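Quick one:
INPUT:
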């Protein structure tokens, strides 16, 4: 049983919340899986047998300020810890009187611009006396380039933040063999279907955490959780790729045998005949197009 310091509560409470809403996909118990895959204390980068991380309640009993481990476990807090450290450093700067600053920790960024209430303000680490705060305030947003995970020399977009944090997560960094550092504990593999995620939040801890959670929680699950908070329910119909979506659409077109122009546009009567045939056969086609309820 461990007695946690006061500043551990925000991080562990957030972890437990995101563990629950991602149905265990984001978990500090991923530490052993990372080590099994070769991302161990020695950075051997040599994968061995992979083991599914246990459930939170099987190992951890968390009731702040107590954290009990029911059995030995290797915990990894990297998905939240870096952002939280940025926030802590920011708080230290503000305690020392610095009100406007930018912290860039390898692409995870915290932008702050808090003004003093009297005529002396600190701006960009220098003191300017007897100037109205509104004349010295940095009011323009901070522009942040979003790195192309396929080519780090390129930007695929620009984000604008102001008095916020932006954090990013991508599998092109810290990659080895067939793995990278963002592991799916349920599939025993690195996340493959998301190339990069950026999140903007009021704190770096939350932005950092959301970049990892978004790697694991597809839109469909997130939308259901949001709906449940509003006492509503969302249902999703079939889609070919088994990911998010709300219906399966099948589009048909008829072209000339030689690949020429669309027949329906050139000969409307054929379209009418085609549509009549679809309607006549629709009941039988339903067995193919909609084999399951909803």
């Amino acid at each position: 049983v461990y007695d946690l310091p006061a500043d551990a509560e925000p991080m562990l409470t957030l972890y437990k919340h995101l563990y629950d809403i991602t149905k265990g996909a984001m978990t500090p118990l991923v530490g052993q899986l990372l080590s099994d895959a070769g991302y161990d204390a020695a950075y051997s980068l040599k994968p061995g047998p992979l083991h599914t991380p246990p459930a939170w309640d099987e190992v951890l009993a968390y009731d702040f300020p107590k954290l009990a481990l029911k059995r030995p476990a290797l915990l990894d807090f990297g998905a939240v810890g870096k952002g939280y450290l940025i926030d802590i450093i920011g708080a230290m700067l503000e305690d020392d009187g610095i009100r406007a600053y930018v912290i860039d920790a390898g692409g995870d960024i915290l932008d702050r611009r808090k003004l003093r209430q009297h005529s002396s303000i600190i701006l960009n680490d220098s003191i300017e006396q007897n100037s109205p705060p509104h004349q010295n305030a940095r009011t323009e947003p901070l522009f942040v380039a979003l790195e192309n995970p396929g080519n780090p020399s390129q930007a695929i977009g620009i984000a604008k933040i102001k008095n916020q944090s932006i954090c990013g997560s991508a599998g092109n960094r810290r990659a080895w063999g067939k793995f990278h550092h963002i592991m799916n504990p349920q599939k025993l593999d690195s996340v493959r279907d998301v190339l990069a995620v950026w999140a903007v939040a009021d704190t770096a801890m939350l932005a950092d955490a959301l970049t990892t959670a978004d790697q694991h929680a597809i839109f469909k699950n997130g939308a259901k959780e949001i709906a449940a908070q509003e006492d509503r329910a969302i249902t999703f119909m079939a889609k070919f790729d088994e990911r998010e979506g709300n219906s399966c659409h099948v589009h048909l077109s008829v072209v000339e045998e030689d690949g020429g122009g669309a027949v329906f546009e050139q000969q409307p009567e054929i379209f009418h005949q085609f549509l009549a045939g679809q309607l006549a056969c629709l009941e039988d086609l339903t067995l193919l197009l909609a084999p399951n309820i909803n």
